[in-house]
Structures are given as C-alpha cells and as structure tokens.
Automatic annotation (TrEMBL):
Protein name: hydroxymethylglutaryl-CoA lyase
Annotated source species: Pyrus ussuriensis x Pyrus communis
Organism ancestry: Eukaryota, Viridiplantae, Streptophyta, Embryophyta, Tracheophyta
GO BP annotations, alphabetical order: ketone body biosynthetic process; L-leucine catabolic process
UniProt keyword Lyase present: yes
EC number(s) per entry: 4.1.3.4
C-alpha cells in the first residue's frame, strides 16, 4: 500500500495496474469508520472514466464479435458520454485473434467525434501500423512481473523497456501522445515488491514524460485499472479516489479479462463504477441509462449475461431515469 501511495505522488503519468490483490481495500478498510466527510474530502469532483470494453473486454470473450458490432458499440459508448474509449490493439492476431480486425475497426471509427481512441502497441511494428491506421494516441503496456511480461508479450521486462523506448522515440517524432500501463501483479507470480513496481513505473515515466514533454499535458494523470477477481474493485477505486486519482478504467458489463493472466476476471463493470460515483455525487458525464443500452447490446451479441450488479438490480426495478 505504501508503495502504491508513494507512486501516486511521484509518477503522475503512469497507469498502474493491479490484479485485484485487495491491498488498497484492506488498508482503507479501517478508515470506513471515520466520518463520511473525512472519507470524501480529497476525492476529485470529476472522474474521467476510460471505457476499455471494446479492447480489454472483447479480447478475452468467448466469441469473436463482428467488426460492425464493435463499431456500433464504440459509437454507443461515445454517445453515452465517455471521453476516452480503447477501441482495439495493434498486437499479433495470432496472439489475440479476437482483435484481428484492428485495421477495419480503426477505419470505421475514423469519423466518430467526441472521444479519444488510444490503441495498444506492443512494439514498433504495432506502433507503425497504428499510425498508418490513423491512431492519434497509443498505449504501451509493460509489467512489473517477469512472468507476466513473458506470457503477455513474449519478452523479459528489460527487453520490453528497450522495445517501448523505441516506440516512445518514434511517437515523439510524430508528436503522438503515449500512455503507459504498468501491470502491478500477476496471479501466478503473486506479490511483486513495491520497489520492482517503482523501478518499472519510473522507467516508463522517464520514457514518455521526461523525454516526451511536448505531449506531457495528455499524460499527466495517474489512473487505475482494476479487475474484480476478488470482488475488491469498487473498494480499490474508492480508495484510489481518496488519494486524489481521478481517472478510472472500467469495462462495460464487466467484460473481459486478460488472455495471458489465467484466473483474472473481467474488469470492474463500468455500470457499477458509474453508479457508485453518482452515489458519491461525483460527475462523470456518463449517461448511465443510455450507457446501459450499450451493455445490453453487447451482452446479447456475446450471448452472456451482464457482469454488472447495477444492471441486474436496475433491471428488476422501474425507477425513473432521473433517479439512476
Ligand atoms: C508482442 C507480440 C507481438 C510478440 O510476439 P512474438 O511472437 O514474440 O513476436 P515476433 O516478433 O516473433 O513475431 C511473431 C509474429 O507476430 C507478428 N507481429 C509482431 N508484432 C506485431 C504487431 N504489433 N502486430 C501484428 N503482428 C505482429 C510478426 O510479424 C510475426 O508474424 P509472422 O511472421 O509469424 O506472420 C505478441 O506477444 C503479442 O501480440 N502479444 C499480445 C499481447 C496482448 O495484447 N495482451 C493483452 C493486452 S495486455 C492486457 O490486457 C493487460 C492490461 C494492459 O489490460 C492491464 C490489465 O488488464 O491489468
């Protein structure tokens, strides 16, 4: 916990990832008895939600979703008010076949306005393909876990940092903003030391912030991305808000997981995150009622039920939209 807390102060533009070990929630468990005003006093008034469902969600669902459905989903998400949607990844189609239609998705969303569409690029090849497809910002994704790095991108942490360094340099030449994910832990490897996380996060920070000052304004926020494997994701989000983090990743209907982290469940359901944030009186600009139609739409296509408790609960009540 202290490692995470310190990181949030030092590394403002590194996205930290945790496979739901519940550390933050446990730490803050003792704080819930404090008066509610004290709990909320540092929480920012506006929370930016990054909807990762079309990428992180669909990469790990059972069925391959047709491109047209993905594009309609992305359009529905943008119309619901999300400022940032991760549409896809420029990774090997052999490794992630569910996203093999990357180029077609990018072509089809080119004219959708109102949101930013960062795409994942694991190497220079992916970066170049992303730029050729019209991507305006990219995401690199390193890991603090050696075994996750090998399973996910088939190389060691050190090699991945070299590879991402090349992407960062290429991006700087084109003034393309680079966001970074730093995966904190991996179920099969267990706890990763805070110093190891700090090392990888600092390397990434140096790569995209200090050597990349022109685009600094778009990467100056620490964000969190929680899976809900142990049911701790909302607690972790609340605890993150409490230390001033105001950007949260989530996936509609709790879709997805990571193809290379066996046992990791889907991301926290966006509907549940929005419901909690609304309840706290925080603004997100997301129209929950409209957005729930997107969840319904994609779940029908996937032939699965929603992983959002909010969706399940609200489907049983008939509260007016203004009360959601
Ligand atoms: C990184 C590689 C490509 C290395 O894969 P590799 O097999 O080591 O690469 P290689 O250089 O030996 O190339 C093998 C083949 O892939 C091709 N290739 C090489 N690079 C690319 C590329 N960019 N795009 C398309 N094709 C590519 C390359 O051209 C070649 O094609 P072939 O000659 O066999 O026909 C592979 O391991 C890979 O694609 N991994 C997928 C990683 C991934 O997408 N994981 C899921 C996302 S991470 C995640 O979900 C976690 C996160 C971020 O959400 C945080 C969280 O949830 O906690």
């Amino acid at each position: 916990m202290f490692g995470f807390h310190n990181l949030s102060r030092q590394m403002r533009n590194v996205l930290l990832y945790e496979y739901d070990k519940g550390t933050l929630a446990r730490f803050y468990g003792g704080i819930f008895s404090l008066p509610i005003l004290q709990l909320l006093k540092d929480i920012p008034g506006f929370v930016k939600i990054v909807e990762v469902g079309p990428r992180d969600g669909l990469q790990n669902e059972k069925h391959i979703v047709p491109t047209a459905v993905k594009v309609q989903l992305i359009q529905m998400l943008v119309s619901s008010g999300f400022p940032i949607v991760e549409p896809t990844s420029f990774v090997s189609p052999k490794w992630v076949p569910k996203l093999a239609d990357t180029k077609d998705v990018m072509d089809a969303i080119r004219n959708i306005e109102g949101a930013r569409f960062p795409v994942l690029t694991p190497n220079l090849k992916g970066f170049e393909a992303a730029i050729a497809s019209g991507a305006k910002e990219v995401v690199i994704f390193a890991s603090a876990s050696e075994s996750f790095s090998k399973s996910n991108i088939n190389c060691s942490i050190e090699d991945s940092l070299v590879c991402y360094g090349e992407v960062a340099i290429a991006a700087r030449k084109l003034l393309i903003p680079v966001h970074t994910y730093c995966v904190l832990c991996f179920p099969v490897e267990g706890k990763i030391s805070p110093s190891q996380v700090a090392y990888v996060a600092k390397e990434l920070y140096d790569m995209v912030a200090q050597k990349f000052l022109l685009c600094h304004s778009t990467t100056d926020t620490l964000a969190v991305h929680f899976h809900d494997t142990y049911g701790q994701a909302l607690s972790n989000i609340l605890a993150s808000l409490q230390i001033g983090i105001s950007t949260v990743d989530s996936s509609l209907s709790g879709l997805g997981g990571c193809p290379y982290a066996k046992g990791a469940s889907g991301n926290v359901a966006t509907e549940d995150a929005v419901y909690m944030l609304n309840g706290l009186g925080l603004k997100t600009h997301v129209d929950l009622k409209k957005f729930m139609l997107a969840g319904d739409f994609i779940c029908k296509h996937l032939g699965r039920s929603s992983g959002s408790k909010t969706t399940v609960a609200l489907s049983k009540v008939t509260a007016p939209a203004s009360k959601l």
